[in-house]
Design brief:
- By secondary structure, this protein is α/β, with parallel strands linked by helices.
- The protein is built from 18 helices and 15 strands.
- Helix 1 crosses helix 2 and helix 12 packs across helix 14.
- The two termini are 35 Å apart.
Length: 416
């Protein structure tokens, strides 16, 4: 099986290799966390580590062996393989499936020669109500645990991972495959077969609803209803009250509290990401009318079917995820009037940049309407208009810069 390189994530693991701190990869199920750890194991072997110094346990398989899952048994399996006179790299896949796994990790950290790596689907053990306690349990000699969000393939990674016969396709054809088949790592390995990739993506969606929600007090039927409404209105402002009001009749009546609980679980599973409204004037996040984006743009078609005419919002979903990959906290807003807000306010190291995303902007009136939110932002910061059908050489007022979205996606070193 071909493995698609994920250099940004591998470099992060290599950079922190010698720190006595737990390294945690989080992200949606199927985004490539286990494969990234496999690539890192290859790196360790190439750097003279012996095979017996690498201990890998898939805790989802452990839960099938031990009923109920037993932290004591898991600890025993690992301790029996620790090397007494050499460091041992311990890789635990989905350890959150084992109740009390943070106690297992704490016991392993007591062994000075143990290097611990976790791959956790969803938001990971450091989020939610028990996040503070988990962080304390996972504190190593060199400090608190290190966490890295793993997203599905960027467009650049997707292009790099395509089979040779696909690499010669025109750039727009590659992007069409990326949107249709999805950005999960298996898409490139499957020769970007659209239907097969979507079947796998729908199966992954169902697995997330069943396996990555913990033990929710909310009926799965309601979770599916909320997810479908978010997919249908991808990138549109919404609220728990609106989600409850628009719930399909087949799921039964839903109140806003139930919708809010379902939304919280969907965000924790990383099925969706939230872009909260951000006020540049006050530097604060607003409480109402967030936008929500899927972890994979093809998930929408796989679960609720094709929705032609929404290309602007699909492109916005792609740009949102790419800004997150590039280390930004991504919000929407910049104005107290929602209709005049920029698509995204991206903060990296506290510095903002403002973004509008459109498939095409033709004619002076449409251009004026499109860039009005950017022109209305008085704070001096980079302002970008990303377009799919870019007008070459077009000059924009107010320091706004226009760039083709495909060129920007492939330029992973581009400033934000």
């Amino acid at each position: 099986m071909r493995i698609i390189p994920r250099p940004a994530y591998l470099d992060w693991l290599v950079r922190h290799r010698d720190r006595q701190a737990v390294r945690i990869l989080t992200g949606p199920r199927g985004s490539g966390k286990s494969t990234i750890l496999a690539l890192f194991r290859e790196h360790l072997l190439a750097r003279s580590a012996a095979p017996e110094q690498l201990v890998t346990i898939d805790c989802e398989e452990v839960t099938e062996l031990f009923r109920p899952p037993d932290a004591k048994d898991l600890l025993g399996r690992v301790l029996s393989r620790l090397q007494p006179d050499r460091e041992t790299h311990v890789f635990l896949d989905e350890p959150q499936r084992v109740p009390g796994f943070t106690d297992v990790c704490a016991a392993l950290l007591a062994h000075g020669g143990c290097r611990l790596y976790l791959a956790c689907s969803g938001a990971g053990p450091l989020s939610g109500e028990g996040g503070a306690n988990a962080a304390e349990s996972l504190r190593g000699p060199d400090g608190p645990p290190l966490e890295r969000l793993v997203l599905p393939l960027s467009f650049a990674e997707f292009c790099a991972g395509l089979v040779p016969e696909r690499k010669s396709l025109p750039l727009r054809d590659k992007f069409a495959l990326y949107l249709a088949a999805g950005s999960m790592p298996w898409t490139a390995r499957l020769d970007a077969d659209r239907e097969q990739a979507r079947e796998l993506l729908e199966g992954n969606y169902l697995a997330i609803l069943v396996r990555d929600m913990g033990a929710p007090r909310i009926n799965r039927r309601y979770l599916d209803a909320v997810a479908r409404r978010l997919l249908l209105g991808i990138g549109r402002r919404t609220s728990p009250a609106a989600l409850a009001r628009d719930a399909p009749p087949r799921c039964g009546p839903m109140d806003p509290k139930t919708a809010a609980g379902g939304l919280r679980l969907l965000l924790q599973s990383r099925l969706f990401f939230e872009a909260r409204r951000f006020s540049l004037k006050s530097g604060t996040l607003l409480r109402t009318q967030s936008r929500y984006y899927a972890f994979d743009t093809a998930l929408r078609a796989a679960v609720v079917g094709e929705r032609p005419g929404d290309f602007d919002r699909v492109l916005a979903n792609v740009v949102f995820l790419e800004l997150v990959r590039r280390g930004c906290a991504v919000h929407s807003g910049g104005c107290s009037i929602p209709a005049r807000e920029a698509d995204f306010i991206a903060l990296r190291d506290g510095a903002p940049s403002c973004w509008q995303v459109r498939a095409a902007v033709s004619g002076p009136e449409e251009l004026s309407r499109t860039i009005a939110p950017l022109r209305g932002i008085r704070m001096p910061c980079p302002k970008w208009l990303l377009t799919y059908d870019t007008v070459p050489g077009r000059k924009l007022p107010g320091g706004i810069q226009e760039r083709n979205i495909l060129d920007w996606l492939l330029d992973e070193g581009a400033s934000v």
